[in-house]
Amino acid sequence: MSPKRVLQALTDQHLLDSKQRAVIQSVEDNRLFSVHWELRSLLYAGILLFTTGTGLLIYKYIDQIGHDLLILALSVVCAACFAFAIRFRGSFSTARTHSRSPFGDYALLLGCLLFLTLEGYLQYQYTVFGTRYGLVTFLPAILFVSLAYFFDHRGVLAMGLTALISWIGVTVRPLEFYFRGNLKDMTVLLSAIALSLVLMVVAIGLDRQRIKRHFTITTLTFAGNLLLVALVAGLFNFENRHLVFSLALAITCVGFDWYARKEHSFLFILMSTFYGYIGVTYLVFHYLHLREEATYLYWIVTGIGITVYLSNSRKIELSKQKE
Amino acid sequence: MMKAYNETWVRNRYILDQAARWQRQGLLDEAKMELIRAKFPVGFRDSNGFIEIGLFVFSIVAISGSYFLLATFLSRLFDVDLFYHFFNIGFGAGIGLLGGYLINIRRYYRSGVDNALIIAAVALVCAGFIGLFPNNLPLWQYCLMGLPLVLAAIWYYSDLLLTLAAFVTLATAIFDGILELSFGKQLLPFVLMTVSASLYVIARLYENREELLYWRDNFILLEWLSISLLLISCNYFAVREMNYWLLDKRPAEAPEIAWAGLFWFLTFSIPGVLFYLGLRQKERPLLIMSAIGWGLALAAWRYFHPLFSLEIYLAINGLSMLIGAVFLIRYLHVPRSGFTDQPDDESPKSFLLSTELLSTVQATSGHLDPKDDLRFGGGEFGGGGSGDRY
Predict the structure, then answer these.
(1) What is the rounded distance in angstroms from the CA atom of residue B249 to the CA atom of residue B255?
(2) Which of A41, A227, A239, B38 is geometrically suited to a Cys-Cys bond with A196, CB 3.0 to 4.6 A?
(3) N-term to C-term CA, chain A
């Protein structure tokens, strides 16, 4: 429905007088076509292509390029990016801040990606970190998380958290439902759980202190996914610990459900529902050895049950909003 | 005639959306907005994207369970094929009725549950109906049998997934049907181009008709789909590879195609024309898809005539995109020829701004392999989402 028609409909119902209508009409007639997000996407895609290209380029021609020259060039560009970001950084505040340049955030992103290339190159060529491989991911993790808070950049925060998670040797990709890394190893599994709990406590603590509250959801999403994946993996991989992991998964799911209702964030309801369902379904089929008909009945009952439950979450939300 | 969803509510929804946009621009105050809401009520159940995903998935789980349970009980009857096909049609119709009932009672509108029921109903009815025909007919005939059913369902439900299904069915029918002709292989790209361009024109013509408001989103989706098909069917790489896969005996490498020059010309000129039209008409789908078309064209050119290695292309193209974007952002700092860099309501910012979604995508798809990282980690991140403000 074109704005013109809407304007006509409102006028027909005597909801707008002729003056209001004329104002809106003139605003609509002079409306500009915004390409803001298209250009940002182009910029972002350009950064990703460029850093991927240079990364691969160095990897391929590692023996043909002068090392010192390469390190120098990478360092200069990387430093220039950070310098640009610092130059146009908004004043520091615990609330949300913005770079004073439209390019500040992107320069920071480019700087961080180039830093990874530089770091990887240094490690490959000169093994600067020796055999302390953990440090190779821990360093960017700490650096990126600090930079994210310093510059108020959620993209860099996400990169930092990804690095932090991979530091303990886990790669979380629930979309593929594939636990890369070593969630079959109890030490790694417990580290993942510990890290996610620490991250969640820190995130909620900072939220309480009103420090960069818009970061809370990003951190909680990362930590929550890690925790839930770890618990489900525990259930799958450690048969003798089923009781502990089932209880922990149940408590986590209920916790997320409670938090989601409190904070009106449906993503967490969805997360707890999906992981909870996977866990319960696994246990049911593991212990009950359902026959064909019972399996189908299980789908029907759980499918309808969860649908009703999810529909009602919406109702609770609405009634809360009305209050 | 009656549709599945209340048409007045659908219309009021568009009016309220537009009025809310004006309110955000400061053109309407809250008191006025209240009056507008009272005058144009929308009775649909409020919805949330994340809950919709869950509702869709678990509705499909419940429907599958019911289908297989009932099919297991009736399996003895299925020795006669006809029973099985009628079972599908009957079950599909039942699901459809249930969908209609829930849409009325629970006031669903694209809320996940109704989408799942509609998709399942149409899929089962189509499968049952097609099953009634002999099973040695060519694929395109089955597609053409199913298409009217899907189109009728789109007319009734205006469902977007069904629109996608109808588009794929039509494209498959054309693909398979044309190839039956002796000169089909040569003709196919041109037919696909003609059909997709025509569909785009039709969608553009009818998209803003008030009497067709119920299907507005379907027309917009059709625009995106038809431009995508147009770009693929004119692309030299796609045509050459398709030609290769249709050969009875495949040599090691895809052979040169007839009218290669023409296809190279189309590969580059069609995105150019789309870009020009997009600029003239200020059409977002045209502008975005023309940029993607150019990307595809350059990738095709690089594939057959590589000057440098892939990494160099990535770096050079990335850098030129970066420089181009920086230049345009600076250039459009002041509005020029009706274009601006200031964000507005129409931009797809609801997606890009949704930090929850963004961080989930990052959390679930981003990966950083510690081992890779020992060497070069550039580009291994699903980073993203920079500042949202100019």
Answers:
(1) 11
(2) A227
(3) 34
- What is the per-residue pLDDT across A107-151, written as a single tens digit (0 to 9) for each? 999 999 999 988 888 888 788 887 777 788 889 999 999 999 999
> Apex CA A60: angle with CA A55 and CA A63, to 5°?
115
Phi-psi region of B247 (alpha: psi -120 to 50; beta: other; left: phi over 0): beta
Across A233-256, average pLDDT: 94
d(CA B359, CA B271): 33
Residues in chain A within 8 Å Cβ distance of B19: 6, 10
Q: Which residues are bridge partners to B340 per DSSP?
A: A34
Between CA B24 and CA A85 the distance in angstroms is 31
- Smallest Cβ distance to A303: which of B59, B72, B368? B59
Q: Which of A217, A219, A205, A119 is nearest to A162 (CA)?
A: A219
Interface of A with B in 2-61 (CB under 8 A): 2-3, 5-6, 9-10, 13, 15-16, 20, 23-24, 27, 31-60
Which residue of B209, B212, B376 to mutate against A (max A Cβ within 10 Å)? B376
CA A147, distance to chain mean position in Å, is 16
- CB atoms inside a 10 Å sphere around CB A158: 29
Among B2, B35, B388, B165, smallest CA distance to A102 is for: B388
**Gyration radius of chain A over CA positions:** 25
Q: Enumerate the β-bridge partners of residue A172.
A: A179
In sequence order, what DSSP letters do the residues of B306-324 get, joined into one string? -SS-HHHHHHHHHHHHHHH
C-alpha A43/C-alpha A106 separation (Å) is: 8
The pLDDT score that the predictor gives to residue A57 is 84
A137 touches chain B (CB under 8 A): yes
CA angle A171, A263, B343 (to 5 degrees): 80
Q: Are A8 and A28 in contact (CB under 8 A)?
A: no
Distance CA A245, CA B146 (A): 48
Residue of B nearest to A267 (CA): B50
Report whether B58 contacts A310 (CB < 8 A). yes
Q: Which residues contact B68 (CB under 8 A, 6 or more apart)?
A: A292, A296, A299
Query: Nearest-CA residue of chain B relative to A123?
Result: B374
- Find chain B residues with C-beta within 8 A of A34's C-beta: 339-344, 346-347
Gyration radius (Cα) of chain B, Å: 25
User: What are the domain boundaries of chain A?
Assistant: 61-139, 196-323
Q: How far is CA B160 from CA B163, B206, B213, in A?
A: 5, 16, 14
Residues in chain A closer than 8 A to B374 (CB atoms): 120, 123-124, 133, 136
Neighbours of A220 (CB within 10 A): 26
Beta bridge partners of B336: B339
Reduced to 3 states (helix: H, G, I; strand: E, B; else coil), residue A110 is: helix
Give how far A288 is from chain B: nearest CA, Å: 18
Q: What CA–CA distance (Å, rounded) separates B54 from B52?
A: 5
Instruction: Cite the DSSP H helix spans in chain A.
Output: 3-12, 18-29, 36-60, 67-87, 104-126, 133-151, 154-167, 186-208, 216-237, 242-263, 266-288, 292-322
The shortest CB-CB distance from A171 to any of B368, B385, B389 is to B368
Tell if the CB–CB gap between B385 and A158 is shorter than 8 Å.
Answer: yes
- Helix ranges (H only) for B235-382 are 236-245, 260-281, 284-304, 310-331, 349-353, 355-365, 370-374
Interchain proximity B359–A296, CB inside 8 Å: no
pLDDT band at A58 (very low <50, low <70, confident <90, very high): confident
Tell me the per-residue pLDDT of B73-102, one tens digit each, with 9 for 90 and over: 998 888 888 999 999 999 999 999 999 999
User: What separation in angstroms does the CA of B233 have from each of B87, B103, B107?
Assistant: 39, 39, 41
The pTM of this model reads: 0.87
